[in-house]
Amino acid sequence: MKKVVYLTLFLMGGLVLSQYIPLLVEDTHLIDEIVTAGTMLALGFIMIHVGYEFNIDKNNLKQYARDYGVAFTSATFPWIFIAVYFFFAFPMSHDGTTGNGVVNSLLIARFAAPTSAGVLFSMLAAAGLSKTWTFSKTRILAIFDDLDTILLMVPLQMLVIGVKWQMFVSVVLMVVLLWFGWKYLHNINASIRWKNVLFYSAVITFVSLFVHHASSMIDENVPIHIEVLLPAFVLGVAISHGFNQVKDKKGKLTDVLHLPSESRMAFAVSAIFMLFVGLSMPEIDGLNLDGHLEPGEELLDWSLVLLHVLFITLLSNLGKMFPALMYRKEANFHQRLAVSVSMFPRGEVGAGVLIISISHGISGMVVTVAVLSLCFNLVLTVFFIWIVKKLLNGYSEEALDSIDETI
Known about the structure:
Strand order of the largest sheet: 1-2
Helix content: 55-70%
Order of helices and strands: HHHHHHHHHEEHHHHHH
Shape: globular
Distance between the termini: 24 Å
Mean pLDDT: 80
Low-confidence stretches: 94-100, 396-407
Structural class: mainly alpha
Number of helices: 15
């Protein structure tokens, strides 16, 4: 459980630094560029690992239809709940100020949709729940709702930017990437060791930034955004599992990612990513760190912010309860409820959505509330796993024989 604490500390540390850096440095342009590139690099690394863990039996697709439907609802309900709340509580126009903010509310609220697959899997395994039906099912749903979030970000950004030729380029690239992932599903012999993954992510980040800057020269108002989420995920999907089998210290054949050195590096990258996410946050209006208020500026009402954070955290987790109503022929209510609670933790992908939202000009208290809710939910992960363990007391070995563990 220490991992969750460390990730939270890095995120909070980045948040604090993001508020003080503008007071210490007059021109933050270079720092902003470094933080942006670092965030993309770390996110690419994480998503390659998420893609690598994803697998699907092409000869038996029907078994995944219901799982994807359940994952879709567990991602959609929190998204819609929070979008409605943001729309009425924080009116935003397309430039992040006041006015009609349906689109911006839909975009930034998407942070509440994806479950943190990386944190979730490591926490459930650490709690001794890796052989439960709940773990097997949650693993499928978490990856599917992360994938759903990645795919939906393109049309959401299209709504923000408008119907521009640049967005059609993005759609074409998305289709090509999905085709590539489907055709070469775990068929490419490439190493998944951390040094190689870091290199792959660096290439994806460079290409993304290059296309963004090059397209800005054509139209600085609507540059082409190739976010690292989907390319990195697809690359991970294409990397072969068989090519990455090695012997551990006991001589047993295991996947490279299961080696302690790889696990430590993966966690280190996640921690750095959380730090960069915090550093990417804009200045919070009304925080008054330098003791000086601009004309018309008011101090932030932290009691109100706390109420918002508590309410949207409750709403976002309530939206994850749908899986408890499904799979009645496969498991009892305690096991199904444990699946829903297991889907509560948010993390890397949700933070990535916030970064994208900020890049499109969304700002103000809505960003502050969203970030703090993400932090709060991450802190609660230890509590969520404790609840899951209590619910599964006595069910550790049940229903596994009937589950095809394809992921």
